[in-house]
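B., you asked whether I could sanity-check this one before it goes into the benchmark set. Here's the sequence:
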Amino acid sequence: MKIIHISDLHIGKRVGEFNMLEDQEHILHQILKLTDEVRPVAVIIAGDIYDKSVPAGEAVEILDNFLTELVSRKIQLFIVSGNHDSPERLNFGSRIMQTNGVHIAGTFAGGLKPISIQDELGPVNVYLLPFIKPAMVRQYFTENDIQSYDEAVAAVINSVPVNLDERNILVAHQFITNGSQQPERSESETISIGGLDNIEVSIFAPFDYVALGHLHGPQCIGRETVRYAGSPLKYSFSETRQHKSITVIELFKKGNIDIKTIELMPLHDMREIKGPIEELVNINDPAFEASRDYIRAILTNEGEVYDAIGQLRRCYPNIMRIDFENRRSKQNILSKTAASGDVTSKSPIELFSEFYANQNNMEITNEQHCILNEIIEQVGGVTK
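And here's what the prediction gave me:
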């Protein structure tokens, strides 16, 4: 039995000033083509379907088209809500859609019930756990003193009579750790400060495969069969080195699972370029080709750069961000605006010279020194 595992679609997301809907339509169409090649029995979407709890109409239409195409292929769908989703909105129509093989767990109702799919080796039981917080669980387990995310998820899992002789899959959207081992995170993810939302991977021991969402980098945690599929697109520059993919799991006999990933190709990649602006915009270079990728430019020029965004946009129309990396950017902020040492013992020309050097990463020239002397004398200042 083959199953495709994806997560963190974030349909409707904007990155800076850029609307990602066209990129998302492209990547979802690519996933549909891969389902035709893989021919899975089911597709798992492990949360953060939308980027906002109240998605725009265009985002809803894109998801509707995607799910309709999957249903037309007679594929079972297993969907849980993520922390970006509105559980109630995601749950709308779920009982009607279940008759067409679309199983949605938007809200947590106090327990987990298996949904079984069959192959020649018997049942595979899929449990859907939407994104939960301790307060959501506490009302159903009043006998437990539930304070942490770890305690909340443990209470839910321990209440489920999992048949360990059969193959079992859990779909969840949480932050999982393995003791002191932390998974790779990205800037675009929401993680609680202080590790309050950490859940220990050992809690998921009864399950043969745990299909996770929440983190954008594809990775396993604790064991190979506890896996984050990752987002299908890059949503921050901390993700530029990640290889976005879908995860394909194939279940054989109990305890025998094959896991592989298939890389996705975005409409526009997201990457970083670095160097002096003169090199980055050198259109006379025969190897240069204007790029429509989403770009973060790191400029290493020491002096001021005139209209950096305008120069770069002519070559990189989808530039998202400009940063500087030079001697000035590495200095303490205070050193940019204040002269060092005892300012009362220094002349105006000494103070200005230090300020000039801090701002421009170069000393004042003899010619500039003479001009400055004349100006200070004209206004009645003291020179040295």
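One thing to flag: Residues 270-328 form one domain. Otherwise nothing jumped out at me.
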